[in-house]
Amino acid sequence: MLLNQFLILGALLFSLGIYGLLVRRNAVMVLLSIELMLNAVNVNLVAFEAFLQNANVGGQIFAIFVITVAAAEVGVGLAIILMIFRNRTSANIDELDLMKW
Amino acid sequence: MIKLTNFAIAATETGRAAQYGEGNPFLEWAWLIVIVPFLAFLAIVFFGKRLPRRGGEIAVGAMAFVAVYAAVLFIMNVTGGVEFVGDPVEVGKIGTFAIEWGWVVDGLSSMMYLVVGLLAFLIFTYALGYMEGDVRVTWFFAAFTLFAGSMLLLVSAPNLIQLIVGWEGVGLSSYLLIGHYWEDKENSSAGMKAFYVNKVADIGLIIGAFVLAIPVGSFRISDILTAVVDNPEAIETVAMVGAVLLFIGAMGKSAQFPFHVWLPDAMAGPTPVSALMHAATMVTAGVYLVARMFPLYAEMAADARGLVITIGAITLIIAGLLAVVQDDIKKVLAYSTVSQLGYMVAALGAGAYTAGLFHLWTHAFFKGLLFLGAGSVIHSVHSNNMSDMGGLRKPMPVTFSTFVAGTLALAGIFPLAGFFSKDEVLAAFNHEGYTAVLVIGIIGAFITAFYMARTVFLTFYGTYKGHGHPHESPKVMTVPMMILAGLAVVGGWVNIPGLYTGFTEWVGTRAHPIAEHHAESFDWPVLAIGLTAALLGIVAGYLLYFKDKQTQLERDTFRIPLLWPLLEHKYYLDDLYLGGIVNPIKGPIARFVNWTNSYIFDGIVNGAGFLARAVAGVVYGVFDQRGIDLALNGLAFTTDGAGGKTRLLQTGKVQQYAGATVIGAALLVIGFVIFR
Amino acid sequence: MTVADWIAEPTNWVYLVLALVIAVSALRVVTSTNVVHAALFLVLALAGTAGLFLLLSAEFVAWVLVLVYIGAVIVLFLFGIMITRAPTGPNVEVDHQRRAPAAMAAFLIFIVTAGSALTAFGDKQISNLGRGTSTEVIGEQLLQRFVIPFEVVSFVLLAALIGGITLARKDATPAEEMAREGSDA
Known about the structure:
A: Helix Hairpins
């Protein structure tokens, strides 16, 4: 197996995630896209680990860390979305434009 | 000018061999003075809320320790002289430059330790009463302790890096304290203003430190001064540039023109903060810096000193005039502080090291006292404005008598503290040949006495005009005031030409002795003129604000509507006073200066004094409006215009931002690949 | 290495199937008009990834992915979708009007990352697989060499837990606040 076949799959997943991140209006779907991007990173980490075969299996361990952090991120992210939804009765991210000037 | 042809001989005049130095346990452990406030700060932050006085007792305890320890060091200095630099702890390294933490105990710093420690202890004790029941008392005391600790860190600094750290610490904690009541927008912007103005000036300090350190190869103050003293020609330009840059930093902290604008606004903080800031900690930092680096100014950079004395003289007169028209009692004192700092800076600029520091020493006592008195009054009547006060002599006897003691000391009436220090400053101007500055100083003495008399008469005499029932403050507040009043009376007796000049020796005990002239006796003509000016100022204040007080109120910028009808028919009687004395001082000039500062246009510029008015108008129109204001406004308009255009880019939509970020990142990578 | 050589390897057939599943379901995640469908396609993509991990002899990570992601995170997502009443009908505008710039950005990123991977690693092989990484090794490494990151991550989780609760908790209305204070007194 080539290393690159995994890396390119990772790149594909990542760019699909970016597309979703930029194009989705619903905040929950934006979060889904972010999960895709994190998953792409996991693919890369594990592929490199298999390629380098280090004794300390750092690639896999960091993949686990990424999964953990992603879980935390989803928890907080959904809580924020819930909060926004409660205050504005909409979870559409393009209606949140308070950041302008 | 001082003759510096033979430094060694000149040095023996003032310098004395220090009796205490290496090996003395008190000096070896002097770092505790700096560390204890910081530990107290942490203790207050972590445990303060659980204590019965919500952390105040830790702060007062720490300051008591500092005061006692500083007193021990000070007594050692008085009896035998101390000169000690602790073994520095190397914190880090930048190239060959070591970043060190150390502590220096010599005549100058032990004097400052005592001033800071003693004033902080008294003011903290006072604050226990003043801040009782306030919001965020714990945080107040934490920041207050940090404030004093940063100042001690600054004073103890044997190298410029540590000095900058303490300097910034003072700036930070002053920001926190000025904005203590941040619920009001005004207060938090006052804090920010102080921070910004200081920050602008700090750039000078930081660049100056590097300019000096790089050719010398060390940040240690002693190394820099040695290099300057031993081989003046070699680094003449460096010393000149460095001295000017350091002085720019000092101008910011010591509120010298044109950086004086932050200090009056800083009155937004609680009164104990103002007291400490004005008496001992923040504003004296600039004076201390110049004094610490004094050989640099004395030896090397005559031009730099010319700048110092000019700035000092301008500040002295401008701020003094402004103090005359203020209604807020704290602002009177604030402008008064700026003016007195002008004296100190001008004295140092004239080469009178001892005179400048002597004024700092006495000023600390009576200005601390005056602020505590003002705080006591404010605490009682719940207003800062003198138009809400009056007649407080009866209900607040202790505050009244101590305030008067402070006033007389500040006005420079024999034999109180301010008399000796101000006289020494004026005598130094005369001796060094700065006649113009001497004249300004004497006018300044008149103005000082005048506005202080005005403050006393408006606050404590006449009839009470506020609401509520004024009452004397509790013991915890009055006792510190009484102690300070005692010091304001006797504080000047440590340096009487011809009788006892201990102070000169105290502050002269340092590694690089100061070469300066010391008078054998009083400069009698200057003394007589200065004292007369002060007395005249008080008499003028008495005539205008006591004898014809109500008329005066009618003419004041800040009026009380209820009193108008009563005042109207008395108007012509006072034309003589008004035309002759008040208006040339108080009316046009002061109003113009006030106008330039606070942008309050008071269209009623009347009375006599056309000449003064014309001069002031030219100064104002050409210098201030066309110069400073035009530059500032131009900058603001340009920024505003550019912002108006670029703000269209900011749609506020997160995803557009994210898209731009992603595309930008990709393009950057492609760019790196192509242009590798 | 030629295409023939590549196809000759049996593991590559497995890879191809999994990659196809992942790519298609990932595409559906970002294009589906139904939020629930998008979440379920994410499950599929993640399951495919878990399969890839098994192929790369990273069993532990694969099962963690299944348990944590598919078991927990997706359920959380579905709850989120329900609570926010996200539009689920087919005719809802779930996307922005202008998709071209987003597609361009995504394509640029793909070019950059894939291009750099191709230039950097050429036809480097992943070999000596198949013995698998034992969970024991991972556990040892996690608690020895990586113990500090491990603790940090645990702290992050704790912070996220508290943050999630604080954010999602419904604040009491003033009336309820008063009622509570009244009962205290």
